[in-house]
C-alpha cells in the first residue's frame, strides 16, 4: 500500500524477516541478531558554553537545517541514509528513508 508521498507503508521492524543471501551473495545469517544503534539526526548547532547555560524551558535552539529538509540516518555512527520525519502509531516519530548514502565501503 502506498501513501501520498509514493512510499510504501511498512509495519514495525519487529515483524520484518531478513532476506536470504542471493546467488553469489554472502551468507549474512550469522550477523542477523547483532544489535546496532540507529540514530536520526534532525540537525546540528554550535554554541558557546555561556549560551548553553542560558537555555531553559521553552528555549529554541536553531539548527542548521530547514523545515522539511531531509534528516541524516546513522547506523553505529556511520551515515547510511537520509529520510523524512513521519508520525507513526501512538503519535510517535519515525523516519521514512528517501535516499541511501553510499560510502567508501558501500552498504
Automatic annotation (TrEMBL):
A GO biological process held by the record: bacterial-type flagellum-dependent cell motility
Pfam families per record: FliMN_C
MF term (GO), any: cytoskeletal motor activity
A single Gene Ontology CC term: bacterial-type flagellum basal body
Family: Belongs to the FliN/MopA/SpaO family.
Cell membrane in keyword set: yes
Name of the protein in its database record: Flagellar motor switch protein FliN
Chain segments carrying region Disordered: 1-26
Keywords for this protein: Bacterial flagellum, Cell membrane, Cell projection, Chemotaxis, Cilium, Flagellar rotation, Flagellum, Membrane
SUPFAM superfamilies registered for this protein in UniProt: Surface presentation of antigens (SPOA)
Location of the protein in the cell: Cell membrane; Bacterial flagellum basal body
Amino acid at each position: 500500500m502506498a501513501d501520498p508521498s509514493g512510499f510504501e507503508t511498512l509495519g514495525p521492524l519487529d515483524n520484518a524477516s531478513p532476506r536470504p543471501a542471493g546467488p553469489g551473495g554472502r551468507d549474512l545469517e550469522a550477523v542477523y541478531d547483532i544489535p546496532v544503534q540507529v540514530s536520526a539526526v534532525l540537525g546540528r548547532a554550535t554554541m558557546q558554553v555561556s549560551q548553553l547555560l542560558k537555555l531553559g524551558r521553552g528555549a529554541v535552539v536553531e539548527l542548521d537545517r530547514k523545515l522539511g529538509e531531509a534528516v541524516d540516518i546513522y547506523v553505529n555512527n556511520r551515515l547510511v541514509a537520509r529520510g523524512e520525519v513521519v508520525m507513526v502509531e501512538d503519535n510517535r516519530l519515525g523516519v521514512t528513508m528517501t535516499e541511501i548514502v553510499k560510502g567508501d565501503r558501500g552498504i
